[in-house]
Amino acid sequence: MAAAGGLTPQARPGELNLAQVLTDGAQILIGTTAAVGGEVRGEAAPAAGGAARGNTVLDLNKATAEQLDGLPGVGPVTAQRILAWRDSHGTFSRVEELQEVEGIGAKTLERLAPLVRV
């Protein structure tokens, strides 16, 4: 943010995930004191074939079993476990919640974290 000139005193970035990995061309809208909120627009859809490739980041709350299966360290069984966790808990609120899925530990999370978002 500093390279772009920083935030104005009215900016309220609190609703944005400041750790979110962005794709080239994404537009970041930052909320203000008058219009609270914020969002990222223009994120690319996952690549054909399901896997997160290049700069594409997979949304854990929208991903299909095929897309999840394309991630490193995630096979069809773990992909189904992720979907089952999502079905029973609602949505992921943090990427770190993946560790609550059977078969995903700290090392797998470390590999997945740059490739997924919520």
Structural commentary:
This protein starts with 10 loop residues before the first strand and ends with a strand. Strand 2 and strand 3 form a beta hairpin. The chain has two domains: 2-41, no CATH class; 58-117, DNA polymerase, domain 1. It has helices at 65-69, 76-89, 106-112; strands at 11-12, 27-32, 38-41, 58-59, 116-117. The strands form two sheets. The protein has a three-stranded antiparallel β-sheet, with no helix packed on it. A two-stranded parallel ribbon has the order 4-5. With 118 residues, the protein is of the alpha+beta class. It comes from Propioniciclava flava. GO terms for molecular function: DNA binding.
Helical run tally: 3
CATH arch. level architecture of the largest domain? Orthogonal Bundle
* Element pattern in H and E: EEEEHHHE
Broad structural category: alpha+beta
Helicity level: 10-25%
Q: Roughly what is the average pLDDT, rounded to an integer?
A: 81
Domain Helix-hairpin-helix DNA-binding motif class: 66-85, 96-115
Pfam families: HHH_3
Protein name: Helix-hairpin-helix DNA-binding motif class 1 domain-containing protein
InterPro entries: Competence_ComEA_HhH, Endo/Exo/Phosphatase_dom_1, Hlx-hairpin-Hlx_DNA-bd_motif, RuvA_2-like
